[in-house]
Structures are given as structure tokens and as C-alpha cells.
Amino acid sequence: MVSTEAATKLEHSPTLNTIRMVEETLKNMDESVITVAELKRLLPRKVNHNKLKTILQYLEESNKIYVGMRGITWTYNPNPAFQEAIRSGYEI
User: Do 43 and 49 touch, CB atoms closer than 8 A?
Assistant: First the structure.
């Protein structure tokens, strides 16, 4: 049986479509750094602020973005050579 706290958390979790929408917007942004307010304006659909915070936390934990004092920066680079350099510790 699921506790009411867990059920409430699941009810308010962002959908995969919403996560992908935020991810694609960040990946394709023109600027190198963007604020949360600017991100909200760029999104094709409105996203609840708490859900957006959850998505940003997930993307930061998965090393796709960096959230700093000036805003959000897309950091993910799927290039195999780049990923191997990181794994092996070589300087690029």
C-alpha cells in the first residue's frame, strides 16, 4: 500500500513529456546562461513552478545542466570522445 505522502508526491510529479520539453528548450537555447524566469517565457507550455524546480533538480543531478548564481547552463555533451576523455582523466 502506498502512503499518502508518497501518493501526493507521485500526483505532483512532472510527466516525461514536460521533462523532455524543458530539456529540449534548455539544449536549444541561444544564450549560454538563462534565468528561470527567461526559461518559463521560452517554454511552449506553462509549467508549474514547483514542477519546474523538480525538473531542474533532476537535470542537474544527471549532469545535463549547471544551476549557478547567474542562471542555468546546458552542460551535457554526448560526444563519445569527450565522454571518454572525462572518464580517463585526459585534458582536452
Answer: no
Write the DSSP string, 41-75.
Answer: HHSSS---HHHHHHHHHHHHHTTSEEE-SS-EEE-
Backbone CA torsion sign across 51, 57, 63, 67: positive
Domain 14-88, CATH among 3.40.920.10, 1.10.1520.10, 3.30.565.10, 1.10.10.10: 1.10.10.10
* Global confidence as pTM: 0.76
| pLDDT at position 4 over 80 | no
pLDDT, residue 92, reads 53
Nearest by Cα to 20 from 36, 38, 44: 44
Q: Which band of pLDDT confidence, cut at 50, 70 and 90, is reported for residue 12?
A: confident
Beta strands per DSSP E along 1-92: 65-67, 72-74
